[in-house]
Amino acid sequence: MLSKLLPILMLVIGIGGGIGAGIMLAPPPEETQSADGAEGEGSSENPEMAADDKADETMAAQDDEIPNDFIKIKNQFVIPVVEREQLTSMVVISLSLETKPGMAGKVHSFEPKLRDVFLRVLFDHANMGGFRGAFTRSEVLDPLRTSLREEARRFLGSDLIDVLILEITRQDV
């Protein structure tokens, strides 16, 4: 008789333990916002802070509504890597610019000048050994990205958000 009750008893204990563990490990209940915008019962009732929070949320929502433009630089950049007065490899890079909306015309009008300054930065990077070894590591590419962004901002201003490296390859000669 005990052998028939033991599985049922184990089942009841297992279910009870599972329910207890679920209750103990459940996340705390989320605070809900009341109609006046105050959170829960223990929040401060400062209407100025609530208005500031609403204004921040509205600005963030407006920023999310207007996406940035991504403008691809038409041609790739080809950079020779020279060591001891001898060509050792060629690096090919494709770049794109992340800008605020409506900057495509300005970018295309400055494209020859942008290509020139980008090539200067890329040649300097190559001459400093930036394309040797594991050249795709983030600690190697981050200074290059920063230099490209700073040079592009000289012409495009703060409307330029970032310079993106879309493709980068190295062919040893």
Describe this structure in words.
It contains 5 helices and 4 strands. The longest helix is centred in the first third of the chain and has 24 residues, at 2-25. The model is unreliable at 40-44 (pLDDT under 50). It is of the alpha+beta class. The relative contact order is 0.13. The radius of gyration is 30 Å and the shape is elongated. Strands 1, 2, 3 and 4 form a 4-stranded antiparallel beta sheet that branches. Helix 4 packs antiparallel against helix 5. The protein has helices at residues 2-25, 47-65, 104-109, 111-127, 138-156, and strands at residues 69-72, 77-83, 86-99, 160-172.
Task: Give the topology.
Layout: H1 2-25, H2 47-65, E1 69-72, E2 77-83, E3 86-99, H3 104-109, H4 111-127, H5 138-156, E4 160-172
Antiparallel strand pairs: 1-3, 2-3, 3-4
